[in-house]
Amino acid sequence: MNKEVTLQDKDLSLVGHVRVSLVAQLGGTEMSVQELFALKTEDVVKLDQSCDAIVTLLLNGKPVARGELVAVEDNLGVRIVELVG
Amino acid sequence: MRRIAWQPRSRAVKLQQLLSQRLELWREAWLPPSHPPLCVVLESHPPADADALCLEDAQGRGWFHASRTFASRLGAACLSLDAHSAPELAGELGTHAARALHVALHKGNLSQTDVPASTSRPGDESLLRHGALYFLLDGLPEPLRLIVDDAWCRAHAGADPLPRQPDLLSRKQAITATAVHVTGQMALGEVSLLESLSWSVGDVLVTDAPRDSHAHLMVGATAIATARLVPQAEHHTLILD
Fold it and tell me: In a mutagenesis test of the B interface, which of A6, A75, A81 is the best target, namely the one with the most B β-carbons within 10 Å?
């Protein structure tokens, strides 16, 4: 019973209500273990993405889209600029 | 010619220094104080002509190479005489002095001068192939060369120092320079799968996260710190809480 089943094979309404986490990945950087252990409050960590750059949206930890962070009244919003499938 | 043995540079230098010390010992005993200083030079090629003296023992073999007139000119230098004055006396003394020099270089002392003369050595190609060294003793009335075989080199240079093992570090010290990739992430809440499938380019997703949401500094899937996103920076920049 290891047959691969695609989403199209099933009615998505069965799982459509399942909620998954949405995370914006802002960028990354490299540091040594020594630098990592030395981090303290108010230290500044500069990431490799410029502020103009888009963020990667992680759905359940998987990158599925890219977008721009925007403010929508008092909340954060994301304008989607790239999407696959 | 393919070499099958050779002397490490450190050993050749060590032997050069050893021979220099022994040569100086002999110079003080046989040459007048006014004689110019002598030195030992390492050469890369064998001399062209036959040998005058050979000394052989369990510690290997060494050969002198000098011209036929070397002994008489050395004797004259020992006596501070002109090269043509008292040639017989100079020749006899020079032979003794040369044998004493040979012993001094070979044994490191001046006690023995009973050296067999004119013993032939193996071909230079064979000697070179097996790690022989060639030294020029410079500063004497005529050039004098010393050829020593591999066994002589090994016996006189002493044991080679063992390669030093590196000092050990604690594992914590050793990993401190390891590079780690860290990412900045901001949790935007949760969405349903059905909602995520309805997205299209240009949509603005309004999240539950407030504008001043804190970001996380992550190593892999592990959050190691929370931080504020600096709004006006050129790059996405986090200030740790």
Answer: A75
